[in-house]
Amino acid sequence: MKALIDLLHREGCSCVIRNGEQVRTFWERGVKDLHRLYTSEPNFLRGADVADKVIGRAAAALMIMGGVKRVYADTMSALALELFSKSDVVVSYSELVPHIINRSKSGLCPLESATKDICSLEQIFEIIDNFVRELSKQ
Question: Which of 51, 91, 118, 133 has the most crowded CB, counting CB atoms within 10 A?
Fold first, then answer.
């Protein structure tokens, strides 16, 4: 994991994922990259190690559903950690925060807010999927 974390910080990307010998870096904000991988290349997530700058509840749900093995976050929300605690994913982080805030720092991240009371991973995915589809229309 240390090599992935070092790559995350050195490259300044948003996320680094390693599956076997293949390592990919990602640059999108939010959950777009994870959503795209989960929907178009789900096998790449299965058994993967992930180093990410920020992990909230929605990202955690995608990682759990994708079968990620280990995850590190510079910043992780307590809501994400709670979700991970019900899975087999091995989790580490630098900073634990109560929740992820939105980009304007005026409230909760939209997906953190929309998924905070949802227990079903499938329902969380539907919320994420609709959110990402709406973003792509803009």
Answer: 51
- 24 sits in which H/E element: strand 22-26
pLDDT tens, residue by residue, 82-106: 999 999 999 999 999 999 998 898 9
Q: Taking the CB of residue 120, how many other CB atoms lie within 10 A of it? A: 10
Q: DSSP assignment, residue 69?
A: -
Chain centre to alpha carbon of residue 11: 18
Torsion over CA of 122, 61, 16 and 51, rounded to 10 degrees?
A: -160
Asked if the model's pLDDT at residue 8 lies above 90, the reply is yes
- CA dihedral for 99, 103, 107, 112, sign (positive or negative): negative
What are the structure tokens assigned to 17, written together?
Answer: 């994922």
Task: Provide the CB-side half-sphere exposure for 138 (13 A, CA).
Answer: 5
* pTM for this prediction: 0.96
Helices (H), the chain: 2-11, 32-40, 42-45, 57-66, 78-84, 110-115, 121-137
